[in-house]
Amino acid sequence: AVLLEMDLVKEADEKSRQLVLHKLAPHQHVLEPQPQLHNERDHAHDDDAPPLLQLPAHLSIAGPPSRDSSTALDAQALADKLIADNERNIKLVQRDMPRTFGNHPLFQDGAAGAQKTYEVLEAYTCYRPDLGYVQGMSYLAAILCLHLDSFGAFRAMVSLMSTRLLFDMYRLEEERVMPSLVLRVSLVTW
């Protein structure tokens, strides 16, 4: 189900990419992030807000293009880098899947649970290319796939990964994760 929806999304993405490339080339616009509007209440809870989608530094378009370079070429290069990173993430998922609950019958090579988990992870790496796939995500996705269909597991994974704790944990940001973990452990042992 997720792969079918992903095929539809890929077709729409290709049409969108072509439209963007077509519209950007004549106007020579630079892709710039839109500023986020916050009120005072939002500033107090920035650490609790779900992480925003950000491209990794090596994938961003740095500064305005020079007069002799084409924005369409920059956009095409960015798209090519995103595709290469996504292919790398898919290979990591394929390599990690046999180790995910390898003794469980539903997660044997080619079994339904393994296929559903792979679909969810593939969809998530396409959904959040800034994070991609990190070793250990397969266990989270597999547990969700035990209890939900592919699309439900994907939605649940997106929701869980939108929490600051899990997102920072998979980004390997120890300085942000440790205070939260220490607080939770102290609450449980209190």
From TrEMBL:
InterPro entries registered for this protein in UniProt: Rab-GAP-TBC_dom, Rab-GAP_TBC_sf, Rab_GAP_TBC_domain
Domain Rab-GAP TBC: 1-190
PROSITE patterns: TBC_RABGAP
Signal peptide extent: none
Entry GO MF terms: GTPase activator activity; small GTPase binding
Domain of life from the UniProt record: Eukaryota
Protein name per its UniProtKB record: Rab-GAP TBC domain-containing protein
